[in-house]
Design brief:
alpha+beta; Alpha-Beta Plaits
């Protein structure tokens, strides 16, 4: 059986109510350089407007994307691809039940 190695978990919430916020994020098991942080701050999936937050310490990095519209799963897939292209981490995709669970999963 092949073992899959990953360094990040990308999370999104399953149920998005009309008019509510969509939160998608990734937890990365490594620190990043200031240049990589600058690139991550430019994340815009499919021209969707929203707020990007990148938080880092010596061991971990958190990337958050908050918007009022858009499919949470599609944004999460775009974030996963963006992370692989920009900083070279492989991520798994994790669906969580609601906004609060995503917020708690990404608490730092």
């Amino acid at each position: 059986m092949e073992k899959f190695e990953f360094e990040a978990v990308t999370v999104y919430h399953d149920k998005v109510d009309p008019g509510s916020s969509t939160l998608v994020g990734a937890w990365i098991h490594r620190g990043i350089s200031p240049e990589q942080r600058r690139v991550l701050m430019g994340f815009r999936p499919a021209k969707i407007s929203g707020h990007v937050g990148v938080y880092t310490d010596a061991h971990y990095t958190w990337v958050l994307f908050l918007t009022r519209n858009g499919s949470a799963r599609k944004i999460a897939v775009d974030l996963r691809i963006f992370l692989e292209q920009t900083i070279g981490v492989q991520s798994i995709l994790q669906r969580l039940p609601n906004y609060r669970s995503v917020s708690r999963a990404l608490a730092f």
